[in-house]
Amino acid sequence: MNTNGRETTRPRDLRGLFSPQSIAVVGASRTEGSVGHALFRNLLLGGYTGVLYPVNPKARSILGVKCYKSLTEIGEPVDLAVIIVPGRIVLKVLEECAACGVGNAIVISAGFKEVGGDGVKLERQLVAIARKHNINVLGPNCLGLVSMDPATLMNATFARDMPMPGNIGFISQSGALCCAILDYAKGAGIGFSQFISFGNKADVSEIDLLAYLGQDPLTQVILMYIEDLSDGPEFVRVAQGITHGPHAKPILAIKTGRTPQGAAAASSHTGSLAGSDEVYEAVFIQSGVLRVETIEDLFHYAQAFPNQPMPAGRRIGIVTNAGGPGIMATDACIRYGLELAKFRDYTEKSLRFQLPATASLRNPVDVIGDARHDRYQAALDAVCADENTDATVVIVTPQNMTDVTEIARVVVESAGFSKKPICACFMGLVDVSAGVDILRKGNVPHYSFPEDAMRAMAARCSFAQWARTPLKDFKTFDVDKNTVRRVFETERKAGRTRIIEVRALEVLRAYGVPTAPFELAATAEDAARAANDMGYPVVLKIASPKVLHKTESGGVKIKLADEAAVRAGFDEILANVKSKLGDDLEIWGILVQKMLPPAKEVILGVTRDAKFGPLIMFGLGGIYTEALRDVAFRLAPLRPNVADEMIRDIRSYRLLEGVRGERPSDVPAVAEALLRLSQLVTDWPEIQELDINPLMVFPSGDGAAAADGRIILAESAE
Amino acid sequence: MNTNGRETTRPRDLRGLFSPQSIAVVGASRTEGSVGHALFRNLLLGGYTGVLYPVNPKARSILGVKCYKSLTEIGEPVDLAVIIVPGRIVLKVLEECAACGVGNAIVISAGFKEVGGDGVKLERQLVAIARKHNINVLGPNCLGLVSMDPATLMNATFARDMPMPGNIGFISQSGALCCAILDYAKGAGIGFSQFISFGNKADVSEIDLLAYLGQDPLTQVILMYIEDLSDGPEFVRVAQGITHGPHAKPILAIKTGRTPQGAAAASSHTGSLAGSDEVYEAVFIQSGVLRVETIEDLFHYAQAFPNQPMPAGRRIGIVTNAGGPGIMATDACIRYGLELAKFRDYTEKSLRFQLPATASLRNPVDVIGDARHDRYQAALDAVCADENTDATVVIVTPQNMTDVTEIARVVVESAGFSKKPICACFMGLVDVSAGVDILRKGNVPHYSFPEDAMRAMAARCSFAQWARTPLKDFKTFDVDKNTVRRVFETERKAGRTRIIEVRALEVLRAYGVPTAPFELAATAEDAARAANDMGYPVVLKIASPKVLHKTESGGVKIKLADEAAVRAGFDEILANVKSKLGDDLEIWGILVQKMLPPAKEVILGVTRDAKFGPLIMFGLGGIYTEALRDVAFRLAPLRPNVADEMIRDIRSYRLLEGVRGERPSDVPAVAEALLRLSQLVTDWPEIQELDINPLMVFPSGDGAAAADGRIILAESAE
Q1: What is the value of ipTM here, to two decimals?
Q2: d(CA A24, CA A65)
Q3: Yes or no, beta carbons of B260 and A364 under 8 Å apart
């Protein structure tokens, strides 16, 4: 089920939306400057290959095309209705769609959820009609959809521009941004396969569209602009399916509302509740989606992917005709996480024969300012053939002797031969433009500056690594569900949502999360026996559902070293809490817990989000989490590699590797605890929050143990 | 003195270089495609306002201009010689310059330091001639110099292009990069005041050029591309003079070789030794230079400055006709350290009257997709007038009703009236281009995407803040130089460069750096008396110039709580070290030191760089410095505000503010210790390295104290 309440098997069949045989434009208009006119003209002049039916009760024809008074009047099968009528009438038109068997609609009209109040109600009614009659509805409040499939050629938008054909699929939550992007793409020579503004996504969601583009043979790379996601786990599932395996397609996304202030603007804009940025970061990491910050990067990266082999690694060769830009490229290479290739001996030897004495033969190869295409050819041949190179960046500055167009031809030719990706940076704008045209026609990604080239190459290498790394299967541990069920039922019955420590530890232990040895003792006698069994020193803690602040109530005794101390401590705790909180306090007993030797302290936590489900947190204990906010989040359920990765993700991970001669900490034990926690919160949706603080982590091989646990159940019992 | 050995009073008189009345081009050539031809043609066709003399013994005329056999033959005063002859002959030409009274030369020719070997020698000879005859020499191995001063109009380069006139001064260490930049600027419509490639900077350095541009009335913003700096402290002095006060000019710099790999490429490229990146970072921070990563940012930022008022703060108003880009701008605003302005009530009230009901009246103001220029006018008037707004970003997406050119006119008009800066983001490339032209002519900075606009605005706000914050004067403390002199002389005489702890502590104490009470005791009796005087507990440490590892040699006793323990400890230490290191070990006594209560531990350190002088380091002790590398550097001498700033600069500064209810640490005491340390290492150039590790920092008001200190003197005694 997605959050819209429709049961889905994805991908939904959206073929009628993307490649309709016939389109009715309800609200097509003769009035120039109106949306109804602009949209119909775009369809008509855009070269649509099917049949168009303008619908307008007041017009005989629009732009020479016979007009119909209503959908019903058409009397022929219609695959798609594009609706541009005032909000209330939209519902009527949708009912008419149902009556006429129109299975797909694009609602351009605004005045729905985004205006609040009655608009919200109207949108709810729209969804009900769509569901009832099984109509795919894109929008409302959107710019529309463009398909550059030559078999369809449909510009069902009211934008000023028809995009160029290409292999980028673009999905946007903002219609206005689409206009700006179309204008930018026109100037920059960027083409699209499909271009969709999805507006309020009342029915067809960004995930449906993503799934469609994932299967669309014309689309080689998917770009998204989103302000929120409808369903986090479903997005992860669909995106992983697209970004993985031998036919992986990259997905690049801009998610705004990244800062708290930005998120506030988002919710007033779309009426949708944006989640916190940590959740989105986790979603993108887990789905292999490359998150980018700016539109420029979005298109820079997008260019890097189509028609290019996947790099096998991150070792970059650089060929340049100028030292300065070579240094800039080297800096950028390292800054963006790539490696400067170390050439094999024969590469330098072969270069020595072909380049002048002043050339630099090591990476970056400097063919010197007066180089013409023959030197570039020699350098590219050698560098691309080197086994230690995974990809090559070619830099050309326009100097006096530089034959820009010939060099461009050489680059295109090398890119055609090589099984490794090449990208080019012809620096400047005017003198290099003839060369840039040749690169573009030859499908070689091109950038004006070395940093952009290197950053795009880094995105490509990251994606290649993600796509070829198999997702490890989810691991399922044998666990004791009965104990958990018993604890939760008992607590529920007693009307408690905050589970006290001893019960929380039982739940953790039932799922195999290691805990410090503990026992609930009803008497001093019991406590002494338990302590003798587990060994000293021990801690005693009051176990009462009414005592929230154990230490402040005198309910904790630590470092008890022998039986006598335990007996005395037991009585003292009881006396303390009773004197503070009254004699009739509900007390279950006293928790006897073995005191663990000093160790690294980490925190594992879970919070559950309405849209995203359980979100798992990991961090180092104390100041690292509280003051330095050095934590990592991932969505449950965790795959084993994701658990490993989130531990390594925190800045202070080095402290777990052991500093100043310490032994490294038992990171695999932490990873297993994370996986068991993931299974626990996935099995038990009633867990609203959970904290293990701290999990004591011992040196490598010695494991870990939870020293304290806290579980909060959801308020609404089922 | 600069590092080239010339005594300078800056700015050097470079008028003859930048605005010569007459130029001799030695090596001008008739051969098309040669550098000597290209350069002479550029001068001739570039509109140079003075007299040109081509010098070439084999030609009668070049491009119709009478040619001279030698400089001597000209027989008229020549202000500048541009030299394009083979390396060895350059020296001869320079001698001829001296003979003819030519005071300025641009040496285009390569084959000097950058090729190593004999080239290094040649360059040394070149410098000697320049020094001897007081000739300003730019280069060698450079592209040349362009002055767009209408009174001069000199293109003394062999680049393909003449730049457009403008107000950007550009200084570059890479000639090839200049070519690329000229081409980019041509396409992007960016103009320059002065454009200089300085090559090997054998004589005229980047600092001389910077000082010149700082005074040049045509130059409103200075851009630098540098691979190394000749003299760090001098750069700081000159740059501070330019970036400060009411007539402050911004300096934007790209410094490559940022990563270790990049630096390696730089040193092979220029033959100059690049310093480590931390030093450069410190230099830029202290001089108010904005360091940028990419050429694109360099020009984006550069556009933001000229002809614009300085923002008084960081509170940004946003006006947009589309929600999505408004959110992107809001995100970027926060990400780049700006604040979203909170409008005053009357602003929202006035907007309510003038904008449609669906408009968003709060920041970002959304004038809605069908807005024309009148709505932009109303919104801009209100937002710019709001007292809570320091600057405004206007976003326009090209939608159906958008009258791009009229809106551009409104923006230009508002920018003209307003005392606050405005920048514009007309999204897209083609449909908005007519509007962008109007903005450019109206001197309104323009960007294609909201992130770029906001980042440039952030650079402007940071610079404005820097420029208006007075540099606090250096503080000079009363100190006891005699003690320091005595210690250093004694150690020097004994041939020791590594000063042992007790002497290092004496030096620190002499400069008022607080130390834990200490005394050197010759006998157990002395030690007991000292301990009684300072109070218990105490630490005893062996004091011997031969014992480097005190703890490992059994030379340390801690937590001694009474007199008996001190006496016993004294004897035990002596016995330990003698048994390990022999009876005839040189022992000065035993250091008795008061043990301090637990406190936050910080590290203060100094290393001295040949080019940059003493570099001061600050960090939190232990893992923060060692494992997390969380440290800040600044060049000595420190101004008081710089000391404060470097403490706040580290990521873990929050730990000094007090977390988990702790009292905040005594940060002012740390700042004073840094200033005293700065005075110490400035007064005593023989200090090569110095460490205070740890400085114990007590809660606010309780001060700080050095618990251990280490000083290393330079090897070469004077």
Answers
A1: 0.78
A2: 12
A3: no
